[in-house]
Design a protein that fits this description.
- With about 400 residues, the protein is α/β, with parallel strands linked by helices.
- Helix 4 packs parallel to helix 8.
- It has a 5-stranded mixed barrel with strand order 1-2-3-5-4.
- It is about 40% helix and about 20% strand.
- The radius of gyration is 57 Å and the shape is elongated.
- It has 4 domains: about 100 residues, Nucleic acid-binding proteins (OB fold (Dihydrolipoamide Acetyltransferase, E2P), Beta Barrel), CATH 2.40.50.140; about 160 residues, Rossmann fold (3-Layer(aba) Sandwich), CATH 3.40.50.261; about 30 residues; about 40 residues, no CATH class.
Length: about 400
């Protein structure tokens, strides 16, 4: 029996498995296209080694490829990942000869489908931040006790039920006003904006909650659109954003006056616990009642003291006492004035005596006389006289004119 087909020639050269693998390795690793390529697929068979290296399989509905992410590159990737995540990876294809497998050595990893969305998110975030829409000083404070709470969210699902349940538990009769809106997909942003504007014109509402459950970036994208951010910023009523899970951060969260980690937390933020308020009011009423009783007791005691006062019992006693006081004060004033007058009179007498002692007429009355020249100047020295000079001699009772006949000076 012939084991060889006649149409197949006997090979001139037979390759070993190693030779073939080396050839394939050279073809793949030297291909410029395959030295840097993006591939997307679902992660499976993920192994995170203690060394920091990660090994996993990328698959779609028709094929699989092995992937290796070395620890050095792993530290540069901010995105976390797990089995079942749909991602896109960047890297170079290589061949692992011991197993005859080709794989991609990963240099970057991102959630699939959000590259453009993430860039748009970052661009809008920077724009609004530059305009000051995230600044704390422009955010409105939440009312302590709103007269009504407005909610913009989908009417179906657990989110609205969580908010209603929390608020009803904390404040059973708090009025709630739901504005149904799409929170995902085409037209969602417009409905959210319309809901915010509607509640802003509703006088029954003091605070607004916008909410939806968790999801991917695509699912939450309506809350990353500029019209929604502008509507939140323009709102005259404070807005609480409860979008996604605690780890999700949307543009709406950054612009809103308050951010809630979950829709349930949003319900806790907007209303106080009614039973606590009732207890507080009851305590304040008791304090007020005690204070009023204390004030009344004090006034009652003052009234009793006033009622027992002899002046109020017999007002004429008060008048008589005041009259005696006035008379005593009048006498004291009279004595004071008299003493002041005596003192001033005595002082005036001393001054008069002093003036009299200095008055020239006093000396003239005692027999002295005063000599003046024709101009009225007093002559008090013989050196001021000349022979035949006319002089006047003043006496106490008159004057006499004389002429100098002889001048004699004392030795």
């Amino acid at each position: 029996m012939n084991l060889f087909k006649p149409e197949v020639p006997f090979p001139a050269k037979v390759l070993s498995v190693n030779d073939l693998t080396k050839h394939l390795k050279s073809l793949i690793e030297n291909d410029r296209l395959l030295s840097g390529v993006w591939i997307q697929g679902e992660i499976s068979n993920l192994v995170k080694a203690a060394s920091g290296h990660c090994y996993f399989t990328l698959k779609d509905d028709q094929a699989v490829i092995k992937a290796a992410l070395w620890a050095g590159n792993r530290r540069k990737i901010a995105t976390d990942f797990k089995n079942g995540d749909f991602v896109m990876v960047y890297g170079a294809l290589s061949v692992y000869p011991p197993r005859g497998e080709y794989q991609i050595t990963v240099q970057d990893l991102r959630p699939a489908g959000i590259g453009a969305l993430y860039e748009a998110y970052e661009k809008l975030k920077k724009k609004l931040q530059a305009e000051g829409l995230f600044e704390p000083d422009r955010k409105l404070p939440l009312p302590f006790l709103p007269k009504g709470v407005g909610i913009v969210t989908s009417p179906r699902g657990a989110v609205v039920q969580d908010i209603f349940r929390v608020i009803r538990r904390r404040f059973p009769n708090m009025p709630l006003f739901l504005v149904p809106a799409k929170v995902q997909g085409e037209g969602a942003a417009a409905e959210i904006v319309a809901g915010i504007e509607r509640l802003n014109h509703d006088p029954r509402v003091d605070v607004i909650i916008i909410a939806r459950g968790g999801g991917s970036l695509e699912d939450l994208w309506a809350f990353n659109e500029e019209p929604v951010a502008r509507a939140i910023s323009a709102s005259t009523k404070p807005i609480v954003s409860a979008v996604g899970h605690e780890t999700d951060t949307t543009i709406a969260d950054l612009v809103a006056d308050r951010r809630a980690a979950t829709p349930s937390v949003a319900g806790e933020l907007v209303v106080p616990v009614k039973s606590e308020l009732v207890d507080f009011v009851a305590r304040q009423q008791k304090r007020l009642a005690r204070s009023i009783r204390g004030m009344l007791q004090l006034q009652r005691q003052r009234f009793k003291r006033a009622a027992s006062c002899r002046f109020l019992v017999k007002p004429s006693l008060l008048i008589a006492e005041r009259r005696n006081t006035v008379m005593n004060l009048a006498r004291e004033l009279e004595n004071l004035v008299r003493r002041m007058l005596d003192k001033k009179t005595h002082k005036a007498g001393l001054l008069r005596a002093r003036l009299d002692s200095l008055n020239p007429m006093t000396l003239l009355n005692r027999g002295y006389s005063m000599v003046t020249d024709q101009e009225g100047r007093v002559v008090n020295s013989v050196n001021l006289l000349a022979a035949n000079q006319k002089l006047r001699i003043h006496f106490a009772d008159g004057r006499a004119g004389v002429s100098v006949e002889k001048l004699e000076k004392n030795d």
